[in-house]
């Protein structure tokens, strides 16, 4: 999301942030209601285009949003009205913004319970558990597989454990993928978590587990390279013959033996 849409989203997030903090555990309800709006926008192109149409009066769109959310919490109505009064580069950006705010709301409910770090760890465990399960990943994205069944499958990855918020997030990612891979959605939520904790998530692929000292040194090195604190998620991948690969957003530091061999082959090929 860029340009006008990015600026609009930032303005609404800044306005909604203190509301979410004040809501405490009730922020979960606000998130659920925002997810319902996302579903409505995804299901109706005409509704989405109307609410994002820059040629329509902002107050008229806000009134329509209030009617649609007549049974919703007043705080949800307020943020949705702020969304539809804003300008968007594309009507799809409105739905994406609502989804982002919904995930933030759910995460704030975990923060109010002191469980934000736990949710972060549990989501990473789910992502790691899927590393070698190609068929499960396909099922989680297969539109022929019933949505509720996908949700149950996703929650099953937690093995009967996990916080209520983590269960809600993984279920939402499976039931409403919105054209994304299941893991991509969880990584998106992980980025939101990092923002809330004022850190960036860096994923490390390595052939063998790192010691506590190695993790600490690598966290410091990557943080200095990126200019901000990082959360290091380590994934052991037997295909990494040696060295390691670090990815933080669009930044990739690849020092694996395989990467060096690939570079050599490209140089020899001319």
Characterization of the model:
66% of the residues lie in helices and 9% in strands. It is of the alpha+beta class. It folds into 3 domains: 1-113; 115-198; 200-268, no CATH class. A 4-stranded mixed beta sheet has the order 2-1-3-4, with helices on both faces. A hairpin with a 2-residue loop joins strand 3 (244-248) and strand 4 (251-254). The longest helix is centred in the middle third of the chain and has 22 residues, at 91-112. The mean pLDDT is 86.
Q: Walk across the major sheet and give the strand order.
A: 2-1-3-4
Coarse shape: globular
Largest sheet: 4 strands, mixed
| Structural class by secondary-structure content | alpha+beta
Please trace the helix and strand order, writing H or E for each element: HHHHHHHHHHHEHEEEH
Mean pLDDT: 86
Low-confidence stretches: none
Task: Determine Rg (CA atoms, Å).
Answer: 21 Å
Number of strands: 4
Work out the helix count.
Answer: 13
Q: What fraction strand?
A: 5-15%
Residues in helices, as a percent range: 55-70%
CA distance, first residue to last residue: 38 Å
Q: Please give the domain count.
A: 3
Topology at a glance:
Blueprint (H helix, E strand, L loop, with lengths): L2 H21 L3 H17 L1 H8 L5 H11 L5 H12 L5 H22 L3 H14 L4 H8 L5 H10 L7 H12 L6 H15 L3 E7 L5 H15 L3 E7 L7 E5 L2 E4 L2 H12 L2
Parallel strand pairs: 1-2
Antiparallel strand pairs: 1-3, 3-4
Subcellular location: Cell membrane; Membrane
GO molecular function, one term: proton-transporting ATP synthase activity, rotational mechanism
Main location: membrane
């Amino acid at each position: 999301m860029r340009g006008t849409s990015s600026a609009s989203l930032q303005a609404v997030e800044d306005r909604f942030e203190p509301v979410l903090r004040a809501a405490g555990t009730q922020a979960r309800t606000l998130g659920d209601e925002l997810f319902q709006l996302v579903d409505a926008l995804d299901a109706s192109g005409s509704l989405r285009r109307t609410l994002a149409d820059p040629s329509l009066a902002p107050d008229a769109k806000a009134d329509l949003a209030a009617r649609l959310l007549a049974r919703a919490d007043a705080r949800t109505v307020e943020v949705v009205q702020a969304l539809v009064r804003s300008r968007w580069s594309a009507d799809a950006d409105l739905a994406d913004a609502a989804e982002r705010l919904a995930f933030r709301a759910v995460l704030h409910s975990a923060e109010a319970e002191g469980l934000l770090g736990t949710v972060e760890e549990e989501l990473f465990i789910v992502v790691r558990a899927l590393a070698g399960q190609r068929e499960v990943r396909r099922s989680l994205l297969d539109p022929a597989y019933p949505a509720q069944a996908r949700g149950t499958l996703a929650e099953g990855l937690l093995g009967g454990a996990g916080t209520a918020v983590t269960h809600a997030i993984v279920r939402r990612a499976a039931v409403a993928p919105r054209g994304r891979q299941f893991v991509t959605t969880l990584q998106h939520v992980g980025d939101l978590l990092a923002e809330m904790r004022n850190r960036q998530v860096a994923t490390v692929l390595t052939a063998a587990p790192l010691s506590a000292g190695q993790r600490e040194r690598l966290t410091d090195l990557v943080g200095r390279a990126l200019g901000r604190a990082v959360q290091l998620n380590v994934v052991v991948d037997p295909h990494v013959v040696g060295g390691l690969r670090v990815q933080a957003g669009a930044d990739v530091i690849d020092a694996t033996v395989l990467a060096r061999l690939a570079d050599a082959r490209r140089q020899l090929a001319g």
